[in-house]
Amino acid sequence: xxxxxxxxxxxxxxxxxxxxxxxxxxxxxxxxxxxxxxxxxxxxxxxxxxxxxxxxxxxxxxxxxxxxxxxxxxxxxxxxxxxxxxxxxxxxxxxxxxxxxxxxxxxxxxxxxxxxxxxxxxxxxxxxxxxxxxxxxxxxxxxxxxxxxxxxxxxxxxxxxxxxxxxxxxxxxxxxxxxxxxxxxxxxxxxxxxxxxxxxxxxxxxxxxxxxxxxxxxxxxxxxxxxxxxxxxxxxxxxxxxxxxxxxxxxxxxxxxxxxxxxxxxxxxxxxxxxxxxxxxxxxxxxxxxxxxxxxxxxxxxxxxxxxxxxxxxxxxxxxxxxxxxxxxxxxxxxxxxxxxxxxxxxxxxxxxxxxxxxxxxxxxxxxxxxxxxxxxxxxxxxxxxxxxxxxxxxx
Length: 396
Description:
The chain is mostly beta strands and 396 residues long.
């Protein structure tokens, strides 16, 4: 091996060898000294909920203790030298002895009916220490009575204090007691879930029978919406006060608007727990669904004025009335003049003083057959054509 002495020029081969040594060693050093090694992972312990039995509307606490292992002894820092371009370069890799353990605790609380809620808490625990985090849960007024389970998950943070990799979990149970608030809604007796067929502009009513199935008197909110079309949900929630066992029929009128495409729809009636303090619906109990169909007819064309024989040299007058349940965007006439082989087309002219009426006056300059048909298009791009009509043009 060649050894470079002060003042001696470095050969290209030596330079290459030194660079290779440097490039190969750095990844190894980074791998070995990226941070203090831990003797095991963090642990999670969950204490018995306090209290174990709680009433609706009261608060319960969950205490989770997180322990993190102490880091192993640090390795002395190393230094790496490489002789490149006749300059001595010192490359020093330092070991970081500071390790911050950021965690997210997720408490998943599941009631007797299978519904669950989640609580989140961010926790920072230094290496080799323990920390107890407390998650508080207020049992809502609309909660069911019975046994609940709580599963607390310890996870890494994946950015912005959101849960990442699961590092461990623990489970406990508690019991909720008290008088329940509960309700249900259904289609009233004697009615079916099929409301029928409607055209734009027509109206119908959807009724739901709400009943208090709980143990105390309370307010409930009944809502109405068209499935899949949020903008077609104009009705405000109906707030009803029901005693246990009491029922009431709530009716919502609805008008089919022109903007609704043809097809089948569902209208959904829902009943919620109504918070008299917050003045809003907080918990959904159940829903019932009706179905209906919107009929989207194409335009209707009716010929009002047409002579089946016209004399040459004068203008014919074709007058039609076009109606549509959504509105008409265009009325066009396609025609062939006597003695011509090519087909022409023109917009028909709306008559201002006569709603839905359109006219066209073709100039008939010679005898023969004049043929035409009319096409109308509505606002939903549906079109309708008449059959081809033939008119004999005779001499004056």
